[in-house]
Amino acid sequence: MRVKDKVAIVTGGAKGLGEATSRLLAKEGAKVVLTDLDEVQGKKVEAEINKAGGIAKYMKHDVANEQQWKKVVDDTVKLFGKLDILVNNAGVGHSASAEDETLEKWRFLQSINLDAVFLGTREAIRVMKNQKSGSIINLSSIEGLVGDPTLAAYNASKGGVRLFTKSAALHCAKSGYGIRVNSVHPGYIWTPMVEESAKESGDVEERKAALTALHPIGKLGVPDDIAYGILYLASDESGFVTGSELVIDGGYTAQ
Q1: Quick one: angle between helices 223-234 and 16-27, nearest 10?
Q2: Which domain holds residue 207?
Q3: CA quadruple 162, 236, 188, 43: dihedral positive or negative?
């Protein structure tokens, strides 16, 4: 029960890393609000967590919408009395070089991957600073640490999350808010988003093998690999950790 009685919001909580994180935080004692646009899958995860003895509530949520952010945070506090943990997990991705990217696709990706992280962090600080405690965990990526010639917009968004996290962490620390802000940097994890990307490239197994070969550890990550890192940052075990980057990548960036 590493996060017993804490209240968490997990964006993109219906599938992939967000689903694994929602399930693990609930298993470890947190009351979890999982948000997503996928209402069917979101309610399914909510029901399964509650059936297993956890406490979860699904809320439909467009993370790029400023007004919806305020409502989700306020509704969470009304429901559970406080907010201890925010996991800014929702994200999208597509492949395009700096030469081939369109402004429309660039702006859409930034709105989900970067703008939403800012909006969520700001709203969480509004509530958490009055409690003098809280942990905000922003999902960046290995692509926020190193470049990829075909991921121009994605690199920009995840690099932005990395440095925005440090700025927010310093602000909260120097303001005496008691709020910690950290980023998590996964390698390639076999999630629905990565699988969909593999399908677009043709042979799924061939693409999976190619991605696996990028990681010295010899395998792709699974969602729980990341969820356990998030659990650590959400818990009081990481009380001296802020402005940090937790890299979980099978050795990808060690090369």
Answers
A1: 50
A2: 189-220
A3: negative
Confirm whether 247 is domain-assigned: no
20 φ, ψ (degrees, to nearest 5): -60, -40
| From 58, 154, 177, 252, active-site residue | 154
Provide the sign of the torsion angle of the four alpha carbons 73, 79, 83, 88, taken in this order: negative
Do 209 and 143 have their domain in common? no
| 154 in catalytic set | yes
Residues 6+ away with beta carbon under 8 Å from 251: 215, 216, 217
248 belongs to a structural domain: no
DSSP class of 33:
E
103, two tokens? 């402004």
Neighbours of 55 (CB within 10 A): 16
Computed over its alpha carbons, how large is the radius of gyration of the chain?
Answer: 17
List, for residues 153-211, the tens digit of each pLDDT value.
Answer: 999 999 999 999 999 999 999 999 999 999 999 999 988 778 777 777 778 888 889 89
The answer as to whether 1 is a domain residue is no
Could you report the per-residue pLDDT of 64-115, keeping only the tens digit for each?
999 999 999 999 999 999 999 999 999 999 999 999 999 999 999 999 999 9
Structure pTM? 0.96
